[in-house]
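This protein record is not my work; I was only asked to verify it. Where you disagree with what is written, explain briefly why. This is what I was given:
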Amino acid sequence: MDITRKRIINPQRYLYALHPGDKFYIAVPLAEEDYPRLQFYGLLPDSPARIPIPRRAATTLNANGKWKVLRDLPKEKRSFEHDYHIVDWHGNDHYGTCWQSRWCYQRELVPPTELAFIIENGVLYSPLLLNTDSSFTIIKAAMNIALEMLGRCEVWTAERAPAVPPVKQTEVPWEILRPGTSLQNDWEAYIDKIVERKPKGQQTVIRQRHEHLWHMAPDFCVLGSQNFWGYVVYGFTALNLYIFECNEVNNATYVFNGDWKSASQLTKTEVLSGHVQEARIYHTEKWYERTGKLISRAGKWVA
């Protein structure tokens, strides 16, 4: 069945031709003009399966998950950071960062679905899906991701799907920057892209955190792509320390010990779950102090 909409709410109405338990793909035969739109989401014809870069609602939900507000629980006090610019009565400019606290509803993270799409033989494919009640959230996500990217999609059953299924291997969503003359330029360009879409009150805050970690002299940096878009990993190999810094304010910095190869294979859900990191440093007034002490302390252990 062809689906041409901005988004769908109930996937069941588009699955009437399927039997319970049937396997199928969400697929889109591509025209020439579709490829630049898919490239905007990081999907390329010759690459392994990729999680689309979060751009709008469906791809952001797929890549980052969402916060569920818990209105039935007592509110909690939460701090919010932003930069400011004021002009005093002498006409002098003053810049800085300030914190404001307010009472907010508690919340919990709904994990991302992290569906990876692939282009093969002129067709965009979702992962293989299963027509069951428990899969409707994933089916809805796959349909809405395709509709966001291209405005249309189709349900392909086994009869129309290719004899050889699309490759399942998913590309690691990181770009490693090794020491070299272009390292700082590439890092700076990436940080610029991170902050350009953020509200002006957050841009300086985000940039200053990344600059702080950069000036701690990591021996390599890793730039996130796909579902990790906006993350930078600062690698201190001699310290066996890897610091994940994200592009969101009022969030947290994740610290991992171990070899980088293992860390690079973590999914976004694993990073955000809070069960695999060595430490989690929240974005509070003491963030700079705590990250600096963490790195310097690890350095003493190595020495």
Remarks:
- Residues 210 and 245 are 7 Å apart (CA to CA).
- DSSP finds eight helices and 16 strands in the chain.
- The longest strand covers residues 76-87.
- Residues 174-302 form one domain.
